[in-house]
C-alpha cells in the first residue's frame, strides 16, 4: 500500500515550505520520486524524507532541484532560510519545534517567563542578551528573528487552539525594563480571550502545585496523539508515555480551575502595567 503523503504546514516552517514546494513542482512536472531521484542523483527515500519535512535538504540539492524544475534560484533561496532554522535551534529543541508545527491544541504552563510563542521582539531580545552575554548583536538578532518566525503558526489559516497559564511571577518580573514589559503585558492582554487563545494567571495566593519549577507544554497533534514537553533552564524533555502525559494533563486541568478567569487575568495584567515606573 502506498504511503499516505504527510500533511505539511508551509506557513509555519521554512523546512515545511521547502518540502511543500518540492512536492508541488514535482507533481506539476508529472514526475515520480523515482524519476526525480534519477534527475538529481539522490535516493528516492532521501527525497521522500525531505519532501515530508523530516530531513533538512543537503547543501547541493537546492541547485539541482532548480535545474531540474527550471525554477531559477527558488530552492536555493528557500534552503538559506531552512538552513538557518537548523543552525539557530540546538538539536535538543528541534524535535519539540517539529511537533509544535503539527499541534492542533497547545496547553502551556509557565512559571517564570512569558512563553516564546507569545513574546514580543523586545522581550525576547532582552532574554537572549542576558542568556548569551558573549553573543554579537547580529547573533542576537538572528535568534530573535527565529523566535518571531516560530510565532507564524499563530497567524496560520488554521492556527492551533492555545491556552496558557502563567504564574503571577511571569507578569511581575520586569524583563527588559518598564517599557518592554509594558508592551509585553499589552500583547498578553490581547490574547487573553480570543477565538483560538485563552490566557490565565495563577496567583501567588494559590501556593504549591504539581507543575512548579519550569515550563510544561501539552500538545495534541494532527494524528490525534498527545505529547508533553517539560523545560527548565538549558534542558528540555519530550514525554510520550501515555501515563506520564496524562498525569501532566490532569495537573494542568487542575490549574485551569485554580487560575484567575480571563477577565480577572486581564485586570491583573493592567494593574501590573500601571505599577511599572514611567
From TrEMBL:
- Recorded protein name is Helix-turn-helix domain-containing protein
Residue ranges of the HTH cro/C1-type domain?
22-75
CDD domains named among the record's database cross-references: HTH_XRE (cd00093)
Q: Name one Pfam family in it.
A: DUF5753
What are the recorded GO MF terms, alphabetically? DNA binding
Source taxonomy? Bacteria, Bacillati, Actinomycetota, Actinomycetes, Kitasatosporales
Amino acid at each position: 500500500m502506498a504511503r499516505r503523503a504527510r500533511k505539511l504546514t508551509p506557513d509555519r516552517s521554512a523546512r515545511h515550505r521547502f518540502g511543500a514546494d518540492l512536492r508541488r513542482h514535482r507533481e506539476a512536472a508529472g514526475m515520480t520520486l523515482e524519476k526525480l531521484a534519477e534527475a538529481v542523483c539522490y535516493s528516492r527515500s532521501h527525497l521522500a524524507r525531505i519532501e515530508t519535512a523530516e530531513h533538512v535538504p543537503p547543501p547541493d540539492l537546492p541547485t539541482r532541484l532548480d535545474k531540474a524544475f527550471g525554477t531559477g534560484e527558488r530552492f536555493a533561496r528557500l534552503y538559506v532560510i531552512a538552513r538557518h532554522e537548523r543552525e539557530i535551534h540546538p538539536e535538543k529543541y528541534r524535535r519539540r519545534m517539529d511537533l509544535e508545527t503539527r499541534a492542533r491544541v497547545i496547553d502551556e504552563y509557565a512559571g517564570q517567563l512569558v512563553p516564546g510563542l507569545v513574546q514580543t521582539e523586545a522581550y525576547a531580545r532582552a532574554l537572549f542578551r542576558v542568556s548569551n552575554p558573549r553573543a554579537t548583536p547580529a547573533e542576537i538578532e538572528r535568534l530573535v528573528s527565529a523566535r518571531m518566525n516560530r510565532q507564524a503558526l499563530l497567524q496560520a489559516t488554521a492556527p492551533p487552539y492555545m491556552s496558557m497559564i502563567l504564574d503571577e511571577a511571569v507578569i511581575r518580573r520586569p524583563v527588559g525594563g518598564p517599557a518592554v514589559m509594558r508592551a509585553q503585558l499589552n500583547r498578553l492582554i490581547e490574547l487573553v480571550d480570543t477565538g483560538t487563545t485563552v490566557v490565565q494567571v495563577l496567583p501567588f495566593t494559590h501556593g504549591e502545585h504539581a507543575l512548579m519549577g519550569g515550563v510544561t507544554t501539552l500538545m495534541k497533534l494532527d494524528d490525534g496523539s498527545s505529547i508533553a514537553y517539560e523545560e527548565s533552564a538549558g534542558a528540555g524533555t519530550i514525554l510520550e508515555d501515555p501515563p506520564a502525559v496524562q498525569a501532566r494533563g490532569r495537573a494542568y486541568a487542575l490549574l485551569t480551575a485554580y487560575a484567575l478567569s480571563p477577565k480577572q487575568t486581564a485586570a491583573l495584567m493592567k494593574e501590573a502595567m500601571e505599577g511599572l515606573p514611567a
